[in-house]
Design brief:
The structure holds four protein chains of four kinds.
Chain A (H helix, E strand, L loop, with lengths): L1 H7 L16 E5 L3 H4 L5 H8 L3 E5 L5 H4 L3 E3 L6 H14 L5 H7 L13 H4 L6 E2 L4 E2 L19 H10 L3 H4 L30 H8 L5 H8 L3 H13 L7 E5 L1 H4 L4 H14 L10 E3 L6 H6 L6 E2 L3 E2 L9 H6 L11 H13 L23 H9 L5 E5 L3 H4 L3 H9 L3 E6 L4 H8 L1 H5 L10 E6 L8 E4 L4 E5 L12 H15 L9 H5 L6 E2 L4 E2 L1 H9 L56 E2 L27 E4 L4 E4 L77 E2 L17 E6 L15 H4 L6 E4 L1 H7 L6 E5 L4 E8 L6 E2 L5 E2 L1 E5 L20 E2 L11 E7 L6 H14 L15 H7 L3
Parallel strand pairs in A: 1-2, 1-6, 2-3, 6-7, 10-11, 11-12, 21-27, 22-24
Antiparallel strand pairs in A: 4-5, 8-9, 13-14, 14-17, 15-16, 18-19, 20-28, 21-29, 23-24, 23-29, 25-26
Chain B lengths: L3 H4 L1 H4 L14 H4 L10 E6 L8 H10 L32 E13 L28 H6 L20 E13 L7 H5 L5 E3 L5 E3 L10 H4 L6 E2 L6 E2 L5 H5 L5 H5 L5 E5 H17 L6 E3 L12 E5 L19 H24 L5
Chain C lengths: L1 H5 L5 H5 L16 E3 L12 E3 L15 H24 L3 H25 L18 H25 L3 H27 L4 H4 L5 H20 L6 H23 L11 H24 L3 H31 L1 H21 L4 H5 L1
Antiparallel strand pairs in C: 1-2
Helix pairs in contact in C: 3-4, 3-6, 3-8, 3-11, 4-5, 4-8, 5-6, 6-8, 8-9, 8-11, 9-10, 10-11
Classes of the chains: A alpha/beta, B alpha+beta, C mainly alpha, D alpha+beta.
């Protein structure tokens, strides 16, 4: 979540669910919280019962809208325009929380002279490289307070890396996400103008940047009345400030856009201006959709990250540990200790084999040099570049956009291991995939060897999930898994054990990492299940005495400490599994610090130093949370202070201070290099220091702001299996959005297979307005076919007034189609797969796909069957001027003959 | 031994102790629990906070191990109903909780001088008593609508009419057996399979029911139904088994927003009255309690509701009356009819010439 | 518009969709589907709201023809038993014998139908667990059991010609239970939430009493020599008259709830029933003393009675399936109550209940 | 005599006539099964603390176990997050564990095969190990574009976000030691 990471320093929700009940106004935008997080929604309802205003901003009228005070039906993909309008409203009417903004944000920082805003380049920032479709971020930098050399340990190395930062291979590799816990590194602290009047101060840059976002413009772009906008603005601003707070809630309604990270940035700017970050009832709450999706980025199985948001070493920049740590060495903020964290990680992985002499085994780590993300890998599979694939509790042929492309990828593997509870579609694609019917694949042509390895459920294994507010909760095993079912811990441990046995006599350097790594966990029971508790201890780390560390502050770079994920250090503090704590909530205050354990260091609300004024006193009695206790000489309050406990509010860093010592007593954003919340992000995002409204990649509307239609940095993966619908095409005239329903879970393996859930939403359907139904002759509860340049699918039609056409200022009407994506051919509740309709276009910051907006056509009746389906879709492509989508066997090379016929270009 | 005549309003015709109809202060005592018994328990379902998640439906089925609806696990038998997000359809033998989804729109032909919409009965008409006084002006409070305010959008895409104000709302309500004070199902059951528990609830005893089906049309709410493959009837038990273990019913336990509240009935009634007053104070004129009134046709319900529209909008009868209220009169008519037959037969015989 | 009402599960948009959008006539009650009673409505346009046209109450799960046949046979057997007993006392041996056989046969068959209708027939004896005066089926069990035992035994000994004294005793016992046997079934139907059964609860026992006599008279007439069948004819004519008169009230006195008796299959059945009953009664009066006339009119009377049972059964089922018949009368009742409360506080309760 | 009385008292009609429930509505009508009713939460052998595996709210669950079978899963009222409440998916999570359609044995599809075949778990593990080594070798790169990379491009992985932290940790550790880098997770999606 670079959106939050670049703004505040950590890529996690700033507040926690229960804290929503302290809000005076809650804006739910880009989230259908009542449907997707019903139990978390109780805290919204609690706030409502206490008199808070609930605003739901969403293209669709959902179950969340039904209980909100106000529903704002903006056009899909226009959130930046709406939020930008609010920012302008706040700035123009002097409604920002001035004391907060001056003290805790980079509003006073000066931006370098080279920076040119989108205003002057018709939608592009300075530094755009049109050939590679990338930015060089150098011109976005602050005007430094001191020359940069003075604060880096290794100026030459840092400068060299700075240059390499611009290489496409480095940019593609998604270093930005390393801002997950620690803001992006900046060369030095900026020059400041505390009056905010300097024309190059961030504050003035911001004002100019958002000057265009007038209520009229918002109204036109979002398709809502100015009065609606004004109502939201009034509620939000009158419920922010010293006495009151507004909370913002989002989920994948924001992230799954080509400019998703910038959506979050826009909200971050607004919430920062309003002084709502780090304060009770405020914040930005990111709602995650899976039990441990936060955990899966904290302890990542992601190509670009090591545990704790340490970046994966890059071939061009990080050939040694010193190089790896060069950018952080000497920096202010907690990233200044990067070397401590990395060495501890290497000690955790390689144990005694990691020694100072061998760079603690740094060289054993594989290096990345480009985009190795999931979709790129699928394209590589189709080209036959990947031999084997593990799917561990994931069903990409249903849950990922462009199911057909995903199936082609799987069909070109040598082998595939699927670990799941049910026989999912990604395991049966060779047998039942829709491409069998169209003739594009057949078992005779698919050489993929498939192993289905049954998995254990959540009650059949010990372990921790990290939920949406960074809280780790331990699950105790209740029963043994049946038959061959095993935990994933079992599978990977024993796979590693077997591999190590096979190679135990190898002297090949490439095998040394495997052989030297620590791999000796206690085993339990007949199945010899590894001890998850021991793994958690390793993640927590140990000190020189072999005892668990209680804080990452104890980590050293001399090899005397270990720790598998530095941000999780403390989860085993005092030798106790803190994640397993279950002191009843009724016996604790609202913060309930003794239930589970939250990173970092059990702090439930991040940046909570900001709940007090620069002098350390609460901004107001009503919103007091953490404050400075002068008598005790420490920070105190209802939560663990997200600040050094004894650092005085009036502390000023001495010259030459580094890491946390370089942050002042009124720098609440402790992971940022300057200790401030970033209204302007001089680094950390690849698509601009400020959010800008672009239309989605597939849009039926022209960008009213600038000549640049869509984000200039969108990442595309081109091939006959991933054609893009042209913008503003008459052939694909309707906007489509995908989403979940309460009754189902993601790709459906955990819900379509269960009778009680299946019967509640038994069929795939799409939601359309009565107007669109009339326009296209669609019949309620009958079939319709949706077509894109990728494929055509059929669905039952639910005609509902909850979906509304948007009328633009020029009289054009934008029709929107809603499409839940849970279905496929397997399970009890079945239907075509919504994701087969979607293409893959990615946010360059995150490589997350734009699921939430695409275009399509819709016609009454069922779709053609068999090969006719291919011809049907191909005809659409021809009409839209899109290149042919015909493919050869298993999706490989396009068939030359029909390409000639199909592609006129 | 109690004499039958005094204890049997069914035949006696008069009902001085309200055993067939009207308020009954202690339903359990009426059913023989004369010694100490638990307080009468019930459900208060506040539909104004229902988010339609259907957790109640699933938690109920899970606890009571009910079969899937209709299809018995055959996937082809499942289908979308087209009734908004309601694919359960109605209460039945396999669905003891049913969440209704009602989508409503209406057009208000009024100009928009303010954000408030005059004439809208869902419009807030004053500062909410819950609203803290600081920082919110009276005008702001007046601008708040209590339910959603889709209405703020002036443009009606249908007519293109400006000034026409289309409002939408989506009502959701979890229906359940009402556990009536005077329960038709219980009273017509000829086997004693249906009985009243010590908690004042009405429960079917599966070891007794012989599937006569009489309770099915006797329920004025259409709650109880027969399971076709089993032959017996089933309905909500208010988790009688859980109650005996001191637990709440499964649905109330699960309900994320406390739309379903379980507890002692008198306590729930007080809570509901307060909630209604709050909503009325916020200008929700259409809010009303349903099944709360002990003077209604079933003597008040053990499971009652706060609704935001007329009961029939949710599929509930507006003024249900327990059928057995009239059973004395029916027996009287039947006796007269029987006497008439004897009279006619006797006179026919006597009046006929013998051969 | 009515399509939506009668097709459960159809889209509400059909009834209220874009094509039919017009300004609401009066305050719209909101969602669900608003309907109007059918063309031939006997009451003024009844606007009402429902939940997607779904029924509010559950239609009875009773099977047809089992239950209508049970009603018919119970009635015919009950009146025949009485007729037989009185005939026996006045020494009409053939009529006695025929009456006892009809009563016995009818009662045994009706027990069969009743048990067959149970979801768990093997648990029939659970009916004897309790005695519930509030349950017509419980009371009915304690009527049907002695009645069918007595009538069945009487018919059996009649056929075998054993124990004449016992026969008379059995005949008297069955006659005692014969009346209740014929009319309790009316309470069985009326004591439900089914609108078109419950509303006429005061008339239905008389319909069933009349119908029972018409059937009993008719059936015994067929098998009894005309000379001896005078009582049968008289009872049949009287029964038919009572049935028609009572049925007329059922069909006309209950506002919208009377409607199902005129419409659809129930309407057809009721019209056929009245025709048969009236024709049977007329023919009895005119030609009942001839053998052919007796048989023809007896068959007509029995058919009329049978059709009445099917018609009443069907009308009830139809009224249960359409929410209109549940909502509209209740709304009218509420309106009346409100009006009553405005007139005088004291009347409120009696007016509405 | 007592036997007759016991027998009589088991007849509800007798209880109706002699007891406090003449209408047969309550005490008189109670059956044997009703008298013996017991909640299966009360008879469970143990209650195990767990967390719901669906969305990320992190609702705590109480898992009731009887004879090593899950008999009930419901919200843990002690949790400050969900306060004992669950959504429909959480409420259905017992079905997730006990689902009859769950596949609990290893299935194998050979290249160009048309049907699943059965395989012993141990055999499958050995076969997978063979293939991992081969794929690793095939895709191995010491250098790429002149830079040392020390990795294999032959193996990719995609995990769901319902993996435990401990599982993710071992996976990342093992893959990194193997040199596999195309390691992804639902968290990207």
């Amino acid at each position: 979540m670079p959106g939050l990471g670049a703004s505040f320093g950590r890529g996690g929700a700033t507040n926690f669910l229960e804290d929503l009940s302290n809000a005076d106004c809650i804006v739910i935008e880009g989230s259908n919280m009542a449907e997707c997080h019903p139990v978390g929604f109780q805290w919204v309802m609690e706030a409502k019962a206490r008199g808070a205003k609930i605003i739901h901003i969403d293209p669709r009228f959902t179950r969340t809208s039904a209980v909100a005070d106000l529903h704002v039906p903006l056009r899909i993909g226009t959130d930046i325009a709406f939020l930008g309008g609010l920012i302008r409203y706040v700035l123009d009417n002097d409604l920002y929380f001035r004391d907060y903004v001056v003290a805790y944000t980079n509003a006073a920082a000066l931006v370098g002279e080279d920076f040119v805003d989108v205003e002057d380049l018709d939608g592009l920032f300075s530094g755009y490289d049109a050939e590679n479709r990338m930015y060089d971020e150098d011109s976005w930098a602050y005007e430094p307070a001191n020359p940069p050399e003075s604060s880096a340990d290794d100026p030459a190395e840092a400068a060299e890396q700075e240059q390499l930062d611009d290489a496409p291979a480095v940019r593609e590799s998604d270093q930005a996400q390393a801002a997950g816990s620690g803001g992006p590194p900046i060369p030095s602290k900026p020059k400041r103008d505390e009056t905010l009047q300097h024309p190059r101060s961030v504050f003035q840059v911001l004002k100019r940047h958002f000057a265009r976002y007038t209520p009229e413009m918002v109204s036109e772009v979002c398709g809502i009345e100015p009065a609606v906008f004004e109502q939201v603005a009034k509620w939000v601003t009158s419920n922010s400030g010293r006495e009151r707070t507004t909370a913002w809630v989002y989920s994948v309604g924001w992230t799954q856009h080509s400019v998703g990270a910038q959506y979050i940035r826009t909200a971050s700017i607004l919430q920062t201006l309003l002084g709502n970050i780090g304060r009770p009832g405020g914040g930005i709450l990111a709602l995650r959709g899976h039990a441990s999706i936060q955990g899966s980025t904290d302890v990542p199985t992601l190509f670009n990250l090591l545990p704790g948001y340490l970046p994966m070493p890059h071939a061009m920049q990080h050939s040694t540990l010193d190089e790896y740590c060069a950018d952080a060495a000497g920096k202010a903020g907690f990233w200044g200790n990067k070397r401590d964290y990395m060495v501890s990680l290497l000690k955790a992985w390689f144990g005694d084999a990691a020694q100072p002499e061998n760079d603690f085994g740094f060289d054993w780590l594989p290096k990345i040099n480009g985009d190795h993300s999931s979709y790129r890998t699928i394209a590589d599979m189709i080209e036959g570049k990947v031999s084997g694939y593990f799917l561990v509790g994931e069903n990409p042929t249903v849950g990922h956009p462009n199911g057909r492309m995903n199936r082609f990828g799987l069909a070109n593997l040598d082998w595939l291991v699927v670990r799941d509870l049910q026989m999912i579609e990604s395991a049966t694609f060779w047998k039942e995939g829709p491409e069998l019917e169209t003739g594009e694949m057949s078992p005779d042509t698919i050489g993929t060897e498939v192993f289905f390895m049954p998995a254990a459920t959540h009650v059949e294994k010990d372990g921790t999930f990290t939920q949406t507010q960074r809280l780790l909760q331990w699950r105790h095993k209740a029963v043994e898994p049946p038959n061959d079912a095993r935990s994933d811990l079992w599978f990977f441990f024993h796979l590693g054990r077997i591999l190590r046995e096979r190679l135990k006599d190898s002297t090949d350097p490439r095998d040394q990492a495997l052989l030297r790594m620590t791999w000796d966990y206690p085993l339990h029971g007949e199945t010899r299940d590894p001890d998850a508790d021991a793994v958690l201890r390793e993640i927590n780390g140990t000190g020189p005495d072999g005892q668990p560390l209680s804080s990452y502050m104890q980590m050293k770079d001399d090899g005397s400490t270990s720790g598998g994920c530095w941000i999780y250090t403390g989860v085993y503090a005092d030798g106790v599994n803190q994640a397993a704590r279950r002191k009843p909530g009724s016996e604790q205050g609202t913060v309930a610090s003794e239930w589970g354990w939250a990173w970092p260091l059990n702090r439930r609300m991040l940046y909570n130093r900001a709940s007090a004024d620069p002098d350390g006193k609460p901004w107001s009695e009503r919103k007091k949370y953490v404050w400075w206790d002068e008598a005790a000489g420490e920070w105190t309050g209802v939560d663990v202070p997200d600040f050094e406990k004894n650092k005085r509010p009036d502390y000023v860093p001495p010259e030459g201070a580094r890491a946390q010592d370089a942050l002042a007593g009124d720098d609440p954003f402790v992971m940022q290099g300057d200790g401030k919340a970033w209204l302007y992000a001089p680094a950390g995002l690849v698509d601009g220091p400020l959010p800008t409204h672009y239309e989605p990649v597939e849009s039926v509307v022209e960008n009213a702001f600038y000549g640049t239609q869509a984000s200039p940095t969108v990442e595309r993966i081109d091939g006959p299996w991933n054609r893009e619908n042209p913008s503003r095409s008459e052939v694909f005239p309707f906007q489509v959005t995908t989403y979940r329903l309460t009754e189902h879970h993601t790709a459906g393996a955990m819900s379509r297979t269960l009778p009680y859930l299946s019967e509640l939403q038994p069929e795939f359907f799409v939601e359309v307005s009565p107007e669109l139904a009339a326009l296209r002759g669609l019949t309620h509860n009958d079939y319709a076919t949706l077509v894109s340049a990728r494929s055509a699918i059929e669905a039952k039609v639910l005609v509902t007034e909850r979906v509304r056409p948007i009328k633009l200022r020029d009289g054009r009407v934008v029709h929107q189609i809603g499409m839940p994506y849970h279905w496929s051919y397997g399970g009890l509740s079945t239907g075509d797969s919504a994701n087969d309709l979607l293409g893959i276009a990615l946010d360059a910051n995150t490589h997350i796909q734009e699921d939430k907006v695409s275009t399509a056509d819709i016609v009454p009746g069922r779709r053609p069957r068999g090969p006719e389906l291919l011809e049907f879709v191909e005809a659409y492509r021809r009409r839209a001027g899109v290149a042919s989508g015909r493919v050869g066997v298993n999706g490989r090379d396009p068939v030359e003959a029909s390409a000639g016929e199909g592609s006129t270009q | 031994m109690t004499s039958i005549s005094s204890a049997s309003p069914g035949l006696a015709g008069n009902d001085p102790s309200n055993r067939l109809f009207g308020p009954l202060p202690d339903v359990s005592a009426d059913a023989g629990y004369v010694e100490e018994h638990p307080a009468r328990v019930g459900f208060f379902t506040d539909t104004s906070v229902c988010i339609g998640c259907k957790a109640c439906e699933v938690a109920c089925k899970e606890w009571n191990t009910l079969p899937m609806d209709d299809s018995h696990g055959v996937r082809d038998a499942m289908g979308m109903s087209g009734m908004s997000y309601d694919n359960t359809g109605m209460l039945g033998a396999n669905s003891w909780r049913h969440v209704a989804f009602v989508e409503q729109t209406r057009t208000v032909d009024l100009p928009m001088p303010t954000f408030g919409r005059p004439g809208d009965d869902r419009q807030g008409s004053g500062p909410s008593p819950m609203t803290p006084g600081d920082g919110v002006s009276l005008a702001d409070a007046q601008q708040s609508s209590v339910l959603n305010a889709e209405a703020l959008s002036e443009f009606d895409p249908q007519t293109g009419q400006s000034g026409a104000d289309k409002q939408i709302r989506w009502l959701m309500s979890s229906d359940v057996c009402k556990h009536c004070t005077h329960a038709g199902c219980l009273d017509v059951c000829p086997t004693g399979a249906l009985f009243r528990t010590e908690f004042g609830t009405v429960v079917v005893q599966g070891d007794i029911c012989n599937g006569c089906g009489y309770c099915v049309p006797a329920c004025p709410y259409g709650v109880i139904d027969q399971r076709k493959d089993d032959g017996r009837v089933f309905k909500c038990t208010m988790c009688y088994d859980r109650l005996t273990d001191g637990l709440q019913p499964a649905c109330a336990t699960a309900c994320p927003t406390q739309s379903i509240q379980f507890g002692d009935l008198d306590e729930l009634q007080a809570r509901a009255d307060a909630r209604l007053a709050t909503l009325k104070g916020q200008g929700v004129e259409t809010a009303r309690l349903y099944g709360r009134d002990e003077n209604d046709g079933v003597g008040g319900a053990g499971a009652f509701f706060l609704l935001l529209d007329e009961p029939e909008v949710y599929g509930l009868p507006p003024d249900p009356v327990v059928t057995t209220r009239d059973v004395p009169a029916m027996w009287k008519a039947a006796a007269q009819g029987a006497a008439l037959i004897i009279g006619v037969a006797v006179s026919a015989v006597l009046g006929s010439r013998k051969r | 518009m009515t399509e939506g009402i009668t097709t459960p599960g159809a889209g509400w948009r059909r009834a209220d969709g874009p094509g039919e959008r017009k300004p609401p006539k009066r305050y719209r009650k909101g969602g669900g589907r608003r309907g109007r009673s059918a063309e031939q409505a006997m009451v003024d346009d009844a606007e009402f709201t429902s939940y997607y046209g779904r029924p509010i109450i559950k239609p009875p799960v009773w099977k047809t023809p089992d239950v209508p046949l049970y009603l018919f046979l119970g009635g015919a057997a009950g009146s025949s038993a009485i007729l037989a007993a009185v005939a026996d006392l006045t020494d009409r041996p053939t009529l006695t014998r025929v009456g006892r056989l009809v009563a016995g046969g009818g009662s045994i068959a009706s027990v069969g139908f009743l048990i067959h209708d149970l979801g768990r027939p093997e648990r029939f004896l659970h009916m004897l667990r309790v005695i519930k005066l509030t349950s017509p089926l419980s009371v009915g069990t304690y009527i049907l059991s002695p009645f069918s035992a007595a009538a069945g035994a009487t018919a059996a000994v009649e056929l075998l010609d054993w124990f004449p004294r016992l026969k008379r005793f059995g005949g008297v016992v069955s006659a005692l239970f014969g009346g209740p046997m014929a009319t309790y079934t009316a309470v069985l139907l009326a004591n439900t939430a089914v609108p078109s059964w419950h509303a006429p609860y005061k008339q239905l026992p008389f319909v069933f009493a009349g119908s029972a006599m018409a059937a009993g008279g008719g059936l015994t007439m067929i098998f009894t020599p005309v000379d001896e069948a005078g009582p049968s004819r008289k009872m049949a004519i009287a029964g038919a008259t009572i049935e028609l008169a009572a049925m007329h009230k059922v069909e006309n006195d209950h506002g919208i709830v009377s409607e199902p008796y005129h419409e659809g299959r129930a309407g057809t059945l009721m019209r056929a029933a009245k025709t048969c009953t009236a024709a049977g009664a007329g023919l009895t009066a005119v030609a009942g003393r001839t053998r052919i006339g007796a048989v023809a009119s007896g068959v007509l009377l029995a058919a009329g009675s049978l059709l009445t049972r099917f018609g009443v059964f069907d009308a009830g089922m139809a009224s249960a399936r359409d929410p209109k018949y549940t909502v509209v009368p209740q709304r009218e009742r509420m309106a009346a109550r409100e009006a009553g409360q405005q007139v005088g506080q004291g009347e409120g309760r009696s007016v509405t209940r | 005599m007592t036997r007759v009385k016991t027998w009589l008292e088991s007849w509800p009609v007798y209880r109706q006539l002699t007891g406090s429930d003449p209408l047969g509505r309550g005490t008189a009508a109670r059956s044997k099964a009703t008298e013996a009713v017991v909640s299966r939460t009360a008879t469970a052998d143990r209650v195990v603390k767990s967390v719901c595996p669906y969305c990320a709210v992190g609702c705590a669950q109480n898992v009731y176990v009887k004879d090593e079978q899950i008999v009930q899963i419901e919200g843990d009222p002690d949790s400050p997050i969900n306060r004992g409440r669950l959504c429909p998916k959480g409420s259905a999570s017992k079905q997730l564990v006990t689902s009859p359609s769950r596949t609990t044995t290893v299935k194998y599809r050979r290249p160009f095969g048309t049907e699943w075949e059965d395989l012993e778990l141990d055999t499958a593990m050995e076969m997978i190990a063979d293939r991992v080594l081969e794929a690793r070798r095939k895709g191995w790169q010491d250098e790429d574009a002149g830079y040392r990379v020390n990795r294999t491009m032959g193996i990719a992985s995609l995990g769901g976000a319902t993996l435990d932290n401990e599982e993710n940790y071992l996976m990342k550790k093992l893959y990194s030691a193997l040199g596999a880098i195309q390691i992804e997770n639902q968290a990207r999606i």
